[in-house]
Write a structure and sequence with these properties.
The complex is a heterodimer. Chain A has one domain: ABC transporter involved in vitamin B12 uptake, BtuC. Chain A contains 13 helices and 2 strands; from the N terminus they run αααααβααααβαααα. In chain A, α2 packs across α10. In chain A, about 45% of the residues are buried. In chain B, the strands form 2 sheets. In chain B, strands 6, 7, 8, 9, 10, 11, 12, 13 and 14 form a 9-stranded mixed sheet that branches. Chain B has a 5-stranded parallel sheet with strand order 2-1-3-4-5, sandwiched between helices. In chain B, α3 packs across α12, α3 crosses α13 and α6 packs across α7. The radius of gyration of chain B is 25 Å and the shape is globular. In chain B, about 55% of the residues are buried. The chains are: A mainly alpha, B alpha/beta. At the A-B interface, α2 and α12 of A face α4 and α5 of B.
Chain lengths: ~325, ~450
Amino acid sequence: MHKISANRKRLLTFILLGWALLLIGDRVGEFRQYQGSFVAMYALAIASIILLTGYSGQLSLGHSALMAVGAYAGALSINNLHLHPVIALIIAALVAGIFGLILGIAAARLSGPYLAGTTLALAISLPTIANQFTILGGEQGVAFDIGTPPARYGEDFSQYKWFFWISSLAALIMIWMVANLMHSKFGRVFIALRDNQTAAQLAGINVGRQKAVAFGLSAGVAGLAGGLLVMLISGVSPSAFPLSLSFSLLTGAVVTGVYDLKGVMLGGLVLVAIPEIADSVGSRVGGSDGFTIALPGFLVSALLILAVLFLPNGPGKLLKKKM
Amino acid sequence: MIRNTRMKRISIVSAVAVAGAMVLSTLPAQAADPGLTSTEIKLGLSSPQTGLAAASYGKLPKAMKAYFDYINANGGVYGRKIKLVARDDRYLPQQAATQTTKLVLEDEVFALVGALGTATHTKAYAAAQLAKKNVPDLFVNSGFSKFGDKTKYPTTFMILPSYAMEAKIISKFIADTPTLRPQASFLIAQDDEFGEDGVKGFVLGGHKFTAPATLYPQGGLSSALAEGALTSLGKLPGNPVLVLMGTTDTTATILKAAEKLDLTTKFNWIVGSVGGDATTLKALGVKSTTIDGIKAASFFPDAKDTTDEYVKQFMIINTKYNKGVAFDNVVLQGMNSAMLTVQALRAAGKNLTRTGLIKAIEDKGSTFASAGLTSLNYSATSRVGYNGYWFGQLNAQGELKPYGGTRKIYTTDSTTVDVPVPLPDTYKRKPIPKNGIPTN
């Protein structure tokens, strides 16, 4: 009997997933389509963290800044160069990737808390720097308008469905590419770096170069997620990429299982659901402003503790075990 | 045979008529706009309820809700009760975009009212597709002049005069005031459309500051930055004029920095209308002695002026429906916007539609009763609310008293270099409806 290769099986899975998303997109209302777009965007951003932290063993607290780089590149491509939104999103990924590669070269000598500190500084300082350049639009930023859906889809085809299609498709293609990469020579090299740098070096791996490559690839994925985020909120501005976004993504990655890409959609879902749950609990329970502000953070913390206690390797691994 | 044929014809005609009637009866009546039932009108508001800006504007949704509760207790609008769904955007553009989208898609509100902030609402307007969905965007609390551009914001009605208008009128005030005219002058403003519009207005008003404006990111003025800016300005001779165009929390940060550096009396402070609420400044820890003497622009009566009929009535409503909340400019503004909303809904008639509401404000908005001391300028071509200011001086009790003893209101526009002109003496503000309940 002919056995399907792992690569084909993965491709088939992604095609089926895409088909399922297409059907879901047709059957839910505009609000769920909008939320679904955010889930896809967050899933992509979490995948970028998993690629860097889970596979190559480098900890970044500055992924919101890398997303911002991609977002600004995409917005400027549309506004200043009048490029097609799809090309703008590709540019978002490329520019963030190049930025990440340069950052990765600089940070190759760092690891652990030193790397975390450096990327944290980046997340704090980059939005402030963006304020200093007129071309980046100051505090109000730059509009990111992808325009209306193509007329051939009909008048009933809403903007939110269009967002959902773009986000889902971009996330699926990119995550499929990352999954393939992780099952290739690159993936094995990254895992070797993560598990034992000295052994990897002795095996002939150029540790510094591979670390920079991992950083660049992760930044590229984050840049695309940044482009999608500002598409959903119609514009990029420094305040769209607060430090808290980096922490949220890390939370999503931990909940997902930081060594596995299988649960990224769940991570995205959690990040979208937490504010909703906090909103709902806050309005039912009532309480002071302090309680309302603290509730999402509390839920995130509780979820993190539960994930570490009961699903340290993420739901993906659990699924694998049962199978 | 004939009979049979006739019968057959009658039967066919009857069958067609019955089938037609059945088909027609199953067709829906013209679908009502979202957020409307026979008993309720659902309105939405996205504004900061938590975070730094909430210290200044957190009272807005409560004030609007209090007024709507009062109207509901008095029969609502043509029998429909008003329900206000208020969402917290923390004064962050991304949050404003998602919260406004939720108001439209999830809460399915009929219209938005009183949205607050410039950078926030520009993003929210686009993300929530307000133009495409024809969602009325009423009485936006921002002075960004582009919100008055009907082609870009076809469903929006501003309420504040633009920041450009305010800057032009401040320019005239400085030029007309002998103690201010010879002094060096500086501008500290928020770095978004807010500050940009202000800077443009000063250029149009012909005022040249001694140095380029100090701009800070929205929500990003720390005490250290404020102290740094004031330390260098404090070394200048004389009593420089310092114009602050920002939110009340940043005004408080700057004034507290001046207190720390012992520079409160060094400057001639001029505070823009958005950032000059004395009650909030005090609540944020600014001393009464610092507030005493600050010059501030306003288009409203002073919120402490109990001789004003609007203030008096809104205070009564506030006491009953907004218990425990101190009455200040923000509460006054919230209730005023709510009262305008009720008039707009009434003007749109019993068969309320989104298009009808927009048309009603275009046609009749300029005749609505309101607490503002200048006229409303709504028409088929104008989405601008108030277009004038008066200057006052705050005393230690936080009361804004007319500068020079007489209240002089100046009006202007946002785009020309025309000098602001005083409001004609013949202008009379429309009296408040009986018990504050519109009957238009």
